[in-house]
Specification:
alpha/beta; three-stranded mixed β-sheet; binds nicotinamide-adenine-dinucleotide; seven-stranded parallel β-sheet; 12 strands; Rossmann fold
């Protein structure tokens, strides 16, 4: 890691930084990508997205008309040529790579597609960056699941070994190794003055927020049951995860890109973004609190059916982001759950989804500027 020069006093995100900034984001039709696109649009970024269309059924992308204030390209990250053409046409200064087959269960059903998208998709993205001289900063989004899980009580640190029991986790660990190899071979921090590109990777915990309808994710499953007045069936109530509102890591990705862009190689590294230690909670705690917040006769029970292997304990150590990026969580988990329930209730009542989501972004941004 390159040493940071001098003292940096205040590192809160600078909203003006994004005004007119050319940004390319893969996976903008997904859950995180939609939240991030709306935020970047609000800050005035000149935004281009590249992704597959959202899956059939409700999506934040469609409901919030995310495509309206950006250039939205439909494309596959496995198609190296199309991806390169799209990035070159956008001539971005900053690239966020979020496109992925993002579900553990789907990765058991379709490992080939998972590796092709998550590993070769990352290679294709970095090759496209090599061929696009305008790019100065790249954030590759992986996951907390990229670490070799030892089922221990401590949080994983950025220098812990990569691993992955299931194809999703292992594909994301591979994406980390790819990013690291490209950084060493083509964008080495020691040669930053000659190439001027920073490549960072970001490992976030389990994110929650309004507008997630992905299959086999805890919050969408709970909300789907509560909305139908059914008991939510929970697969692994004892599993411990680092939960956080989607805006928390999204702010981390943006801050990281901004810092790389402004200050160069020090930040071109891997970073964990997760909650404070007290918000690393078991699934049962989430289910219980969601039921309380939803009210009425909302309840949950254990799903007795067979499930594929999932880690029991997964914690992240966020000391590095806290110390060197001055990023830290702004929301307690209880407040994050309240935001999710509020978002779902208001959507159910027919409010404009884009305005609702933008309001939550504005409120959150104010917290960051305090
Ligand atoms: N949601 C979480 O809890 C969580 C936690 C940690 C990390 N992540 C990571 O964050 C990123 C975004 O996650 P998400 O929750 O928004 O996922 P998501 O499944 O909602 O969205 C995935 C996005 O990737 C796109 N995509 C998938 N395959 C593609 C392909 N072959 N070519 C082009 N685009 C493709 C989809 O169209 C969509 O835009 C992913 O990299 C995911 O692994 C998510």
């Amino acid at each position: 890691m390159v040493k940071r020069q001098g003292t940096v006093e205040k590192l809160a995100m600078k909203p003006n930084f994004w005004q007119g900034r050319r940004v390319f984001i893969t996976g903008h039709t997904g859950f995180k990508g939609s939240w991030m696109s709306l935020w970047l649009q609000k800050l005035g970024a000149e935004l281009t997205g590249y992704a597959l269309p959202p899956p059939a059924g409700p999506s934040l992308f469609n409901e919030a008309s995310v495509a309206e204030h950006m250039t939205s390209c439909q494309g596959d990250v496995r198609d190296a040529n199309a991806l390169t053409v799209s990035i070159q046409a956008a001539s971005p200064e900053i690239v966020f790579h979020m496109a992925a087959q993002s579900l553990v269960r789907v990765s058991y059903q379709n490992p080939l597609e998972t590796y092709a998208t998550n590993v070769m998709g990352t290679v294709n993205l970095l090759e496209a960056v090599r061929a696009t001289p305008s790019v100065k900063a790249v954030v590759i989004v992986t996951t907390d699941k990229c670490y070799e899980n030892r089922e221990w009580v401590w949080g994983y640190r950025e220098n812990d070994p990569m691993g992955g029991y299931d194809p999703y986790s292992s594909s994301k660990a591979c994406a980390e190794l790819v990013s690291s190899a490209y950084r060493s071979s083509f964008f080495n921090v020691q040669d930053y003055d000659s190439h001027g590109v920073g490549i960072a990777s970001a490992r976030a915990g389990n994110v929650i927020g309004g507008g997630d309808w992905a299959e086999d994710r805890l919050i969408p499953d709970i909300l789907a049951a509560f909305e139908k007045n059914k008991t939510a069936l929970i697969r692994n109530p004892g599993a411990v995860r680092p939960w956080q509102h989607v805006l928390e890591p999204v702010r981390g990705y943006m801050l990281l890109a901004e810092r790389m862009f402004c200050e160069g190689p020090f930040y071109a590294d891997s970073w964990n973004f997760g909650p404070n230690a007290e918000d690393i909670r078991p699934v049962s705690w989430i289910a219980e609190n969601m039921a309380k917040l939803w009210g009425g006769c909302a309840q949950w029970d254990i799903d007795p059916s067979e499930h594929p292997h999932e880690a029991v304990s997964l914690k992240l150590d966020i000391s590095k982001a806290r110390d060197s990026l001055q990023w830290q969580p702004r929301l307690e988990l209880r407040d994050a759950l309240k935001l999710v329930v509020e978002w779902s209730r208001k959507r159910q009542s027919g409010v404009d989804v884009r305005a609702l989501t933008e309001q939550q972004i504005s409120n959150y941004q104010e917290l960051d500027q305090q």
